[in-house]
UniProtKB/TrEMBL annotation:
<dbReference type="GO" id="GO:0009063">
    <property type="term" value="P:amino acid catabolic process"/>
</dbReference>
<keyword id="KW-0119">Carbohydrate metabolism</keyword>
<keyword id="KW-0460">Magnesium</keyword>
<dbReference type="InterPro" id="IPR034589">
    <property type="entry name" value="D-mannonate_dehydratase-like"/>
</dbReference>
<comment type="function">
    <text>Catalyzes the dehydration of D-mannonate. Has no detectable activity with a panel of 70 other acid sugars (in vitro).</text>
</comment>
<keyword id="KW-0479">Metal-binding</keyword>
<feature type="domain" description="Mandelate racemase/muconate lactonizing enzyme C-terminal">
    <location>
        <begin position="129"/>
        <end position="258"/>
    </location>
</feature>
<dbReference type="InterPro" id="IPR029017">
    <property type="entry name" value="Enolase-like_N"/>
</dbReference>
<dbReference type="InterPro" id="IPR013341">
    <property type="entry name" value="Mandelate_racemase_N_dom"/>
</dbReference>
<dbReference type="InterPro" id="IPR034593">
    <property type="entry name" value="DgoD-like"/>
</dbReference>
<dbReference type="GO" id="GO:0008927">
    <property type="term" value="F:mannonate dehydratase activity"/>
</dbReference>
<dbReference type="Pfam" id="PF02746">
    <property type="entry name" value="MR_MLE_N"/>
</dbReference>
<dbReference type="Pfam" id="PF13378">
    <property type="entry name" value="MR_MLE_C"/>
</dbReference>
<protein>
    <recommendedName>
        <fullName>D-mannonate dehydratase</fullName>
        <ecNumber>4.2.1.8</ecNumber>
    </recommendedName>
</protein>
<dbReference type="InterPro" id="IPR018110">
    <property type="entry name" value="Mandel_Rmase/mucon_lact_enz_CS"/>
</dbReference>
<keyword id="KW-0456">Lyase</keyword>
<dbReference type="GO" id="GO:0016052">
    <property type="term" value="P:carbohydrate catabolic process"/>
</dbReference>
């Protein structure tokens, strides 16, 4: 038995907030798990510290599945982003420990490599089509095989996904939420010309992606998907809010553009209908928000039955600990599709030194034992938590809207 002797939550803000769980064991091996829930970070800190950690001490760190079930079924209150992020952190840390004890990189325990590397997509954005296409060209020159295109919408002051920085788009900031203004009509006019210009400039040997960020109705999404078809997008992401999965059936009736959804999902139950009715092509659930490696494997195995592939969320609010876990998972899972990769800042990378690498559009988790990611606790302690919110979205007449 490998006893859990201690666990602590490390909150740090090296440019943005991260919550990291560190679990220690009787033979000195420790493991890390990401528990960051963007804009609601401290709720998971409390869930872990006040409610989960006291139940972990003394348990056998090797019993990953049993601990997962204990935290999930045992809480009585199932699912939800706070619960599932906390369980994810415990689960990830336990896999890190098990792989370290085995003396193997985690992906070897998950069945070994199913491919040479993990294809990632980068974010090209700009305030105009020209700027966005120019940014995409730079990604292509750096070897990216898949690029997400988000451009400013003429007539709207600010839009999600668009920043002037080359790499670092950061959605959460401000002591109170920033307010964006939205017009579906203006947006819908702006996306097809963006894709047309991008295909003309970049050719056809690169995958192009787009995120609608839950702001369309199903019929609007169907129209956008259809208008993008000539430009062969890899996927249209979060076309409509997925609380009502039936909405995706309506989109499907109107377009063959592949659909991706699930970055806000936290369990297999959120994805079940979408997967079994083949209403989506890519499932975006990720390690930190969907119950860790144990639960993500379950979702992926289920999705594989229906030829739905993975496309894990990988924005900057998913820490390098999550990124490492995602890469071990992505390298080994049979039905891998693509992995999102938004680079972290240099300071974040200093706080979380890691073995994973990027080369020519592909990433690899590296061959360090465990997850292959560390936390520099002294440096982390120098950067205190700073409240930050995701933005909100309103229609031009002031109505609150999805974002
Ligand atoms: O596709 C994506 O990366 C996103 O939709 C994110 O920017 C998302 O809004 C943030 O990660 C939320 O924390
Ligand atoms: Mg998204």
């Amino acid at each position: 038995m490998l006893r859990i002797t201690g666990a602590k939550v490390i909150v740090s803000c090296p440019g943005r907030n991260f919550v990291t769980l560190k679990i220690e064991t009787s033979d000195g091996v420790y493991g890390l798990g990401d528990a960051t829930l963007n804009g609601r970070e401290l709720s998971v800190v409390s869930y872990l510290t006040d409610h989960v950690i006291p139940c972990l001490i003394g348990r056998d760190a090797h019993r990953i599945e049993d601990i997962w079930q204990y935290l999930y079924k045992g809480a009585y209150w199932r699912r939800g982003p706070v619960t599932m992020s906390a369980i994810a952190a415990v689960d990830t840390a336990l896999w890190d420990i098990k792989a370290k004890v085995a003396g193997l990189p985690l992906y070897q325990l998950l069945g070994g490599a199913s491919r040479e590397g993990v294809m990632v997509y980068g974010h090209a954005n700009g305030t105009t089509i020209e700027e966005t296409v120019e940014a995409a060209r730079r990604y292509q020159a750096e070897g990216y095989k898949a690029i997400r295109l988000q451009s400013g919408v003429p007539g709207l002051a600010s839009t999600y996904g668009v920043s002037n920085d080359r790499y670092f788009y950061e959605p959460a900031n401000g002591n109170t939420p920033h307010e964006n203004v939205w017009s579906t009509e203006k947006y819908l006019r702006s996306v097809p010309p963006l894709f047309e210009a991008a295909r003309e400039a970049l050719g056809w040997d690169v995958h192009l992606l787009h995120d609608a960020h839950h702001r369309l109705t199903p019929i609007e999404a169907g129209r956008l998907g259809r208008e993008l078809e000539p430009f062969r997008p890899f996927w249209l992401e979060d076309a409509t809010p997925a609380e009502n999965p039936d909405g995706f059936r309506l989109i499907r009736q109107h377009t063959t553009t592949p659909l991706a959804v699930g970055e806000v999902f936290n369990s297999i139950w959120d994805a079940k209908q979408l997967i079994e009715e083949q209403l989506i092509d890519y499932i975006r659930t990720t390690v930190v928000h969907a119950g860790g490696i144990t639960h993500l494997r379950r979702i992926a195995s289920f999705a594989d039955l229906y030829q739905v592939r993975t496309g894990c969320h990988g924005a900057t609010d998913l820490s390098p600990v999550c990124m490492a876990a995602a890469l071990h998972f992505g390298l080994s899972v049979p039905n891998f599709g693509v992995q999102e990769y938004m680079r972290h800042t240099e300071l974040t990378d200093q706080v979380f030194p890691h073995a994973y690498t990027f080369e020519n559009g592909m990433m690899h988790p590296g061959d360090a034992i465990g997850l292959g990611v560390e936390i520099d606790e002294d440096l982390a302690a120098k950067h205190e938590y700073k409240r930050a919110y995701l933005p909100v979205n309103r229609l031009e007449d002031g109505t609150m809207w999805s974002w």
